[in-house]
Amino acid sequence: MNTQKKTMVVAIEAADEMATLDAKLKIPAEILAKGGTVAFPTETVYGLGANALDDLAIQKIYDAKGRPSDNPLIVHIASLEMLDTLALEVKPYVYTLIKTFWPGPITFVFKKRPEVSKKVSGGLDTVAVRMPNHLIALRLIALSGKPIAAPSANISGKPSPTTSKVVIEDLLGRVDCILDGGDSEVGLESTVLDVTGDVPIILRPGKVTREQIEACVGACEIDSAIKGSIIDTSGMARSPGMKYKHYAPKAEVYVYVGSTSDVIRFFYKESQSRVMTLHERVAIMTFEEDAEVLVKLFAHLPEIYEQVEIITMGSAKDWTSYGKKLFDSLRQVDVLGCDVVLVRGVEEIGLGGAIMNRLKKASEGKVTRI
Ligand code: TXA
Ligand code: MG
Question: What is the whole-number distance in angstroms between the Cα of residue 103 and the centre of ligand 2?
């Protein structure tokens, strides 16, 4: 049971000068240093932070999120000196990756130093570390003087938070402080890369793609648990977070991949039969070009269209805004009171790998090629 906490909410403006920012972060940084919990923005998603060196503080994260404690946490740092206190060994090629991608949306999994507690590593002999590319996050960590363990700042199982609004919805009364610092740029959590061996292995796809890592250090593999269209829920996953149902709205999620004309035709027919036969309210998440066509088609069926909500995911020509809007749109489906959401999937190239990974999990593998 969670005792209701008084949560301090601190609004930070993009226009704040450095001195103003530091003044606003003074108390939140002290809260962290003293073992409290602070939700803060990063470029990927909002994180719920606590001192990574304090087991009691870490327990507060698990309690607030309702998260199983065998699921390890990413430790966020603001300087490479902090990395030395966590990682037992950093292979030479990893410095090339660090130079290229940090601060940024990639997490490296290292063999851990013995001082890193099991509470953070989830019982593994490794530790996941990230230097976020976000001024508020970097200043908060630096001012606290501690490495900060932070999972995404959502109730476990829900879509990750990309706006302060949903962090407040999920965590007000459950954490000590929430920093309100605008929307997350990337919208998808970081790439998680195992760098304990000679060849890096992607454990969770993200904004930094396999192609980019290969171009940087010559080789990159993908963990077998994230290949294929069905999620591997068996046994001990390499990245334990991958085995839980995730990112799911209350509505049923179905994902369809195919040509524009085939998917539009399918969405049009499928929503009619779901509304008429099953009496469902239907959401459609698709590109804005597809939405324009669908709106014209539904204009002929006003009584059906009344039960259909179309959520646009940006242009088909650039998947950046698809990634940025994905989690918020999944939450929106419930707000709109829909029973089901039909989602246009993408090919698994570039950012498409990360987008489809999240959609496979949100839909529990209900991905169809049409
Ligand atoms: O972008 C992000 O990574 C965000 C922001 C807040 O930085 N954080 C985030 O944390 O997504 P979380 O806890 O929701 O996801 C952490 C992922 C999980 O899949 C977990 O299993 C994996 O990282 N992970 C953490 N430590 C690991 C380790 N030692 N070995 C393998 N996987 C690990
Ligand atoms: Mg998460």
Answer: 19
pLDDT(244) > 80: no
* Exposure class string for 163-200: b at 16+ Cβ within 10 A, else e: bbebbbebbeebbbbbbbbeebbbbbbbbbbbbbeeeb
pLDDT of residue 157: 83
Return the H-helix or E-strand segment holding 80: helix 80-84
For 50, 53, 81, 83, 318, the CA distances from 35, given in Å and listed in that order, are 7, 9, 21, 20, 42
Q: What is the CATH number of the domain that holds 265?
A: 3.40.50.11030
Q: From the CA of 246, which ligand is nearest? A: 2
Task: Quickly state the pLDDT bin for 245 (edges 50, 70, 90).
Answer: low
Q: DSSP letter at 226?
A: G
pLDDT of residue 3: 61
Confidence at residue 351, expressed as pLDDT on a 0 to 100 scale: 94
- What residue's CA is closest to ligand 1, atom 12? 151
Give the orientation angle of helix 135-144 with respect to helix 18-33, to 10 degrees: 50
Contact 314, 320 (CB under 8 A): yes
Residue 239 lies in a domain: no
How many angstroms separate the CA atoms of 362 and 148, rounded? 27
Tell me the best of 158, 192, 238 to mutate to test the pocket of ligand 1, counting ligand atoms within 8 Å of each CB and taking the most.
192
Please identify every residue whose CB atom is under 5 Å from ligand 2, which is an ion: 152
Sign, CA torsion 99/102/105/107? positive
Q: What is the domain-level CATH number for residue 135?
A: 3.90.870.10
Range of the structural domain that residue 149 is part of: 8-226
- 224 pLDDT tier (thresholds 50, 70, 90): confident
